[in-house]
Amino acid sequence: MTLFAKIIRREIPADIVYEDDEVLAFRDINPQAPVHVLFIPKQPFATMNELTDADAPIVGRLVIAATKWAKAQGFAEDGYRVVMNCNRDGGQTVYHIHLHLLAGRAMHWPPG
Question: Looking at the 3D structure of the chain, how many domains does it have?
């Protein structure tokens, strides 16, 4: 069971900022920007490589949830970045897909 599964089950604490039937979002414990929130599906997928066409709705839900939250927090117009990492070389450290929302400062390109 991953760390994120334990957060979904409320077995370990997290600073939860958003929740609906399919998505949970909480502040990253190692933030890389003033705002750094992780949006995760409640349904477990280890990596993006597991996703199929049938899973498109859940990925869309992650994006829409992040967008709604950014608008509600008032920084959507200033801008924000969303990132999904896949596997070790892609920077993934928890094997439960998740979308990073970063905001509160100017983002630079290339990201790293």
Answer: 1
Give the three-state DSSP class for 33: coil
List, in sequence order, the alpha helices (H) in 1-112.
Answer: 3-8, 56-73
**Nearest in space to 79 (alpha carbons), one of 58, 109, 39:** 109
pLDDT digits (tens, 9 = 90+) for 29-48: 999 999 999 999 999 999 99
| Of 33, 15, 28, nearest in space to 78 by CA | 33
Q: Which residue has the tokens 């498109």?
A: 56
State the first-to-last Cα distance of the chain, in angstroms, to the nearest integer: 30
Order across the sheet with 16-19: list the strands.
Answer: 16-19, 23-27, 35-41, 99-103, 80-83
Give me the active site residues, please: 98
Q: What is the pLDDT of residues 52-68, one digit of tens each?
A: 999 999 999 999 999 99
- Residue 39's domain is classified under what CATH number? 3.30.428.10
Cα(24)–Cα(62) distance, integer angstroms? 9
